[in-house]
Amino acid sequence: MKRVLIDMDEVIADPMGAMITWYEKEYGGKVDYSKMDGSWAYGFPEEHRHLIRPKLNEPGFFRHLPVMKDAVAVLEEINKKYELFIVSAAMEFPNSLKDKLEWLGDHFPFITWQQVTLCGDKRLVSGDFMIDDHTKNLDTFGGKQYLFTSPHNLSVDKYDRINSWEEAAKIFLS
Amino acid sequence: MKRVLIDMDEVIADPMGAMITWYEKEYGGKVDYSKMDGSWAYGFPEEHRHLIRPKLNEPGFFRHLPVMKDAVAVLEEINKKYELFIVSAAMEFPNSLKDKLEWLGDHFPFITWQQVTLCGDKRLVSGDFMIDDHTKNLDTFGGKQYLFTSPHNLSVDKYDRINSWEEAAKIFLS
User: CA A131 from chain center: how many Å?
Assistant: First the structure.
């Protein structure tokens, strides 16, 4: 069985979406998607950008994120045909660790705790395929890399892209 | 720089010792080290063995563990000469995740969050050296394996052993 490593944030979970919803409600501001090249934080007005980091480390933030469209159904099938691992560079936000594991349990109950890795640096992990929205994670991976499209990585052209889980299904399940 | 992966429990941290201290104080029982072959839990009287699992998942248990003798000084030196990563199969105990990261921060402040991986299965990680007390973790590792001696693995003879951090220093630092 080939091994597929799948990232969480901006790939199966939507912290950017949750942050925007929270920000627009609490501060009445508007994010600018056209400024997100490099980091989605750049889409937030500069005077409010400092709000993002503490929010990301707030207990509960990663516990209640929206799930990316079609991720559950497609991962359930990938999980039958591949050795599936969830790999999230979560260590920067200590309060996210348990939240992320429990969020996975809620939405992806077919993924066991044995299949979850929370790390600080993805150089350590190996497998046949990696799906991630960050080039820094893909750059050091020894297998086939797929960049999962996100507003912050639209200008990247060094990796094959997956634009949606529907598209991922065509690659991995057909 | 060669990469060294180092386990936490029974290698740099002492959950077995903390469990024994707690058990003997709370229940007045005695553990039998000669029965620990395969698992240190076997050293506990059978009627009290069910106490161990909930205790391991109690918030705070992994936050206040004793540090293994000489581990801090030797890891500090290893960290200068190698690419050091801490890899702990912690995912079974969700409440341990943040505790483990904070415990590392207290005792090993020279180890950054980038160097920490908490996982469910160590098959995923790769490197040049692994120091671990469990054969299941060493078995799938592609580099050189060292079994860190612990009461539960005394009968294992398939790997080179490290019996103490003083001994590790001789192997890695001389």
Answer: 9
